[in-house]
Amino acid sequence: MKVQWRGVYPALTTKFKQDFTIDYEAFLANVAFQLSSGIDGIILGGTLGEASALVGNEKSALIKVTKEYVGDKLPVIINIAEQTTEGAIAAAKSAQQEGADGLMMLPPMRYKATNDETVAYFKAIANSTDLEIMIYNNPIDYKINVTLDMFESLTACQNIVAVKESSRDVSNITRMINRFGDRFQIMCGVDTLAAESLLMGAVGWVAGLVCAFPRETVAIYRLIKVGRIAEAIAIYRWFLPLLELDINPQLVQNIKLAEEKVNLGSEIVRPPRMPLSGDTRVEVLQIIESSLASRPSLPDYLSI
Fold this sequence. Notes:
alpha/beta; single chain; TIM Barrel
């Protein structure tokens, strides 16, 4: 199906059983709640999806299971994070064969490519597939900044259509719009900058805490888009302590613990990750429980 590249796109966690095999039943239960909450797309196999711990054909299986469940209700995007151009092209082709509707793409992993190498990498993958692509620009975590000049080169690829903007510099949204207009759809990729990014022109939100709090996430997005800013900001201010759990090295464990506390998953992660423990777990639980105790009532955002 055609991807609109706007709205709320959860970067879903991958659910595991006690033996660390994928728990598809728990995964689809979360997907069902996301759908009922009004999300606009799904992203699989990202950092929150523990992509680095998925093996064999598990990414392909997740695509198949998700597409079979959601059908044409909304698009399913798979993250491409590979070490070589050949590997990324193979992953893109596999994703298309398994039914993915689009790709989210990181620069080459592990090797810090030059600007020219990064552009060549993106172009080679774009030229190998018919799927539309969202470039994931996250220089903080992945050490490669996709600059405006690099995006200028990427305009030659008609299927590179969006960017997940995670540079932590909100003004970069204005720079992109000033230079390219609406050539690239801009999706905010940092939970703690979502409201600010949407107000400055981002058209979507690739979200993390949405895995546990989809209604609040979608409500903020929709309220901002119809100009009900005060209502959105009130929810956002309540949400911020939770959103800050996303900008942390243990974001996967943080968000999975939040999912468990709202009955939308469990805190099981695949080694070498381990569930939170000690003082860190106590601190995160305090944030979650305090937020749940003061959880705001939401307007009828689904009718917006």
